[in-house]
């Protein structure tokens, strides 16, 4: 959903965007790269941080893009023209989703042992997201296939065409993340990284991915927010079949509130959309948005027992394609679970095998 209060934010670069295969300076030692995605959300922002490790000058790459020939070719253009002749020293992924981690294996291999660089270009990521990526690149749990179709059917999705397409998406994640580096460096909440003399503090977030890492450089007044805070759309917060009783939305909202101590003048570098100022305003907008959706969810369940598929027209006022429907089902469940696990709804499984949620009497 587009942000109806976007005017409360400001965009210091205006409409300026880096063209494919180029980079824009956005802050001292920070460059902005933008890659294409084959979805309705058609781009991802990636970041280059000027670095030095073990006396080797170079760059840290933050997030990677999906695995395809077009993204690799665009990266090669960036390498040729926007690294000042220096190598990539490490690859940092905010979380395990394909647009963020997809090309990590290629980037690490591409720069390991490069002239003037380190013997191995290492992936840095949280341990939880690393292990989930390793599993997902070899499996279909939580991301498509028979298990996902059965899970959504148990929450009211009965359209056979949609279920058949979900079953057919068994290779969805591996198609964009065909491999994950075998070794990594662990990122943890509160950890401070020295990146070229600038201190970047890791801030963990939950709900969108299990252990999402944002990066805050207080000296620069910059937050690389990943997917936790986006200016125009609300971050997808889902329940999936691999963790069927998750309370993702409560975790996400708690994570947003932990960002409130950051300066309101922070320059936010999001994974989608444009760099913006107005962090506190955006946090308030996102929290209010979900509070409104929780109220809508509660009202629907007070009117009649409701399953997640039945809640889609309440939460989403626009037509949804299959890609959007799978995310929307996860979001619907996240709102239902937040109320259910807080004791404001109860859940019952009917004779048809479908879970419905109703208000506590």
UniProtKB/TrEMBL annotation:
Q: Which InterPro entries match?
A: B_lactamase-like_C (IPR048933), Metallo-B-lactamas (IPR001279), RibonucZ/Hydroxyglut_hydro (IPR036866), Sec-metab_biosynth-thioest (IPR050662), WH-like_DNA-bd_sf (IPR036388)
- Which Pfam family, giving just one, matches this sequence? B_lactamase-like_C
Q: Which residues form the Metallo-beta-lactamase domain?
A: 43-272
- Its name, as the record gives it, is MBL fold metallo-hydrolase
| Lineage, opening ranks | Bacteria, Pseudomonadati, Pseudomonadota, Betaproteobacteria, Burkholderiales
């Amino acid at each position: 959903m587009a942000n109806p209060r976007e005017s409360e934010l400001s965009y210091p670069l205006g409409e300026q965007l880096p063209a494919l295969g180029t980079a824009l300076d956005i802050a001292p030692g920070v460059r902005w790269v933008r890659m294409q995605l084959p979805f309705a959300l058609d781009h991802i922002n990636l970041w280059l941080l000027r670095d030095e490790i073990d006396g080797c000058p170079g760059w840290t790459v933050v997030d990677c893009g999906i695995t395809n020939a077009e993204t690799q070719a665009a990266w090669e253009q960036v390498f040729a023209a926007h690294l000042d002749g220096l190598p990539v020293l490490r690859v940092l992924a905010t979380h395990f989703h394909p647009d963020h981690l997809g090309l990590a294996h290629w980037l690490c291999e591409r720069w390991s042992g490069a002239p003037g660089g380190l013997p191995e270009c290492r992936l840095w990521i949280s341990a939880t997201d690393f292990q989930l990526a390793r599993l997902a690149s070899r499996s279909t749990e939580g991301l498509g296939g028979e298990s996902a179709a059965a899970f959504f059917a148990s929450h009211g999705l009965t359209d056979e065409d949609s279920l058949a397409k979900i079953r057919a998406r068994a290779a969805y994640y591996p198609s964009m993340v065909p491999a994950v580096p075998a070794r990594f460096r662990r990122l943890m909440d509160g950890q401070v990284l020295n990146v070229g003399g600038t201190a970047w503090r890791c801030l963990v977030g939950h709900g969108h991915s299990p252990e999402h890492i944002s990066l805050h450089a207080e000296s620069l007044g910059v937050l690389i927010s990943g997917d936790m805070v986006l200016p125009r759309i609300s971050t997808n917060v889902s329940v999936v079949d691999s963790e069927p009783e998750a309370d993702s939305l409560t975790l996400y909202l708690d994570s947003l509130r932990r960002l409130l101590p950051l300066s309101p003048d922070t320059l936010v570098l999001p994974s989608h959309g444009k760099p913006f100022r107005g962090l506190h305003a955006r946090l308030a907008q996102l929290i209010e948005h979900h509070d409104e959706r929780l109220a809508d969810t509660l009202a629907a369940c007070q009117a009649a027992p409701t399953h997640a598929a039945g809640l889609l027209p309440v939460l989403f006022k626009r037509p949804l394609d299959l890609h959007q429907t799978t995310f929307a089902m996860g979001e619907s469940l996240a709102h239902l679970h937040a109320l259910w696990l807080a004791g404001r709804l109860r859940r019952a499984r009917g004779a048809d095998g479908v879970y419905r949620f109703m208000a506590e009497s």
